[in-house]
Amino acid sequence: xxxxxxxxxxxxxxxxxxxLFLGGxxxxxxxxLGLRMQHLQVDQADEFRLLAEENRIxxxxxxxxxxxxxxxxxxxxxxxxxxxxxxxVKEDAGNVDEVIARLSALVELDEDELNxxxxxxxxxxxxxxxxxAERVTWDDIxxxxxxxxxxxxxxxxxxxxxxxxxxxxxxxxxxxxxxxSERDLARYETPDPVLRIPxxxxxxxxxxxxxxxxxxxxxxxxxVEVNAVGRVMRELDRREGIPGADMQLTVDTKLQSYIQxxxxxxxxxxxxxxxxxxDLLGIASSPSYDPNKFVRGISVADFGELxxxxxxPLASKTVQDAYPPGSTFKMVTVLAALDAGVVAPDETxxxxxxxxxxxxxxxxxxxxxxxxxNLEQSLRESCDVYYYDLALKVGIERIAETARRLGLGQxxxxxxxxxxxxxxxxxDWKQRERGSSWVIGDTVNASxxxxxxxxxxxxxxxxxxxxxxxxxxxxxxxxxIGDTETAETGGAELGFNENHLxxxxxxxxxxxxNRRGTAYGSRIIDETVRMAGKTGTxxxxxxxxxxxxxxxxxxxxLPWNRRxxxxxxxxxxxxxxxxxxxxxxxxxxxxxAAAAPIARDVTLQALFGQDPPLDxxxxxxxxxxxxxxxxxxxxxxxxDPDGRSRA
Length: 647
Known about the structure:
The chain is elongated. Strand 11 (268-274) and strand 12 (280-286) form a beta hairpin. It is α+β, with helices and mostly antiparallel strands and 647 residues long. The strands form six sheets. Strands 2, 3, 4, 5, 10, 17 and 18 form a seven-stranded mixed β-sheet that branches. It has a five-stranded antiparallel β-sheet with strand order 12-11-21-20-19, sandwiched between helices. Strands 1-8-9 form a three-stranded antiparallel β-sheet.
């Protein structure tokens, strides 16, 4: 049926309206699209150009050179050495097994390290390099380079790795570095990105750890062009990093090496300190260990051997361990009494071999007693009863105060790990820490350095230096960081009466130079370098009734780990003090027999800078000392990385 003209005109009109509407929508969409394209291509061109560049260019960190550590004379004790390694890129190698077989014919490959590398190749992207051999020789690198066409994907590389040329001499002082672990990263709120570089080395203990950020330096960076899958195409430019700052310590390598050789395998420690500025000239723990084994990760067997050794080679005994100071503490007690005015130097105390206090008998080491003792005699012969009597007169609070003024009971920030505060107890301490009241017997025990009193060898050296000078000498281990020298620590006057100090020094001189002195057998004959000292013996554990019944009455009859500790402190020369020395021999027995001879040898070595002349020793000891010097020189030559004698 034909439509009416009116209906046809209405339909045409409606279609035209729809067409106009759709055309307008299309035009608006095209306009919006054009404006958006203009915004992206013109207004935001720089931003998208930068994003494209970032997709094409990667920034990669360059590890900085770690700062070196030197002794006071410029001898390297922690340095860097070239470390050669061989890497392989899986996709470039093609047949990995075949390439590995060719490489094995040229270079000896460690089976465990190779298996680890193959496992790493399976987990990582095929274009990333994986280390298949580490710490190889220059000859190995040369053979790989010459045969490069037959070793696709294999690349010889060179970097820097930490080395400790003096091996165990400074292990407890400098510490060591090792690969960064998750535990290391957890110590930082925002870890330095360089720490995430594979096998990057970080300080673990000692100076290396305490001064990590100074020694580490700042990483450099290089820009490399990569393709769509991240493979490096070429290097565009690089910015070298800032090397870590070098450090100079106060220790003397020759003296430190001598001390380690002199101690041998004893479980012992020695501190040598300059009494004028606090410089630590020697600070050694024995036995020691080779820190080089930790640099790339120590084996389970080697670590187990160190961990299970009852002489504890991993412990920094000079600062980490605290011992009852025994009779070396008696100078503290007598100085407190003199300062309080409760005793005069010539006043005597009767020693019958014991003292009754609070219904308990406190014995002197000499069971028969010393008879009448004054200040000098009591220190010279180490009479315990004299100090029991002083303790009752002066009290623990004055004793504790004097001990702290002399450097006990505080941790010195010298840069080593786990520095102990030791313990100088008083009434408040016992109530707070033990929940019980102080009793008079505690004071009596403290007066001779037993009971709760604990001190480290470093603190004993500080105490001795302060007694020798009357000044607040503070130990210093780090002499210089970069170009900046650390402040010397000669210290201000302690405020003790000089006459009182003079009385104590005279008594210490008698300990080593009077025939009745406990250390007379370890005296120095040369009048220009004679020393003043004090022996000490700290009890580890009492002999039980059952042991006495079996006839165990002497220290030597006990197992090694139950014997008394032997201690000795001294300064020299007596007339013009230069150094203070402290020695602790764990389970060594008596201080006069075990610790004093070591202290004398170390003192002479420090003052002469080499083996002292034999006429510095008593004539009866000279032949033995001659043999000892020859033996130690042989040890030093064998341990010297330069192969020279240090005499």
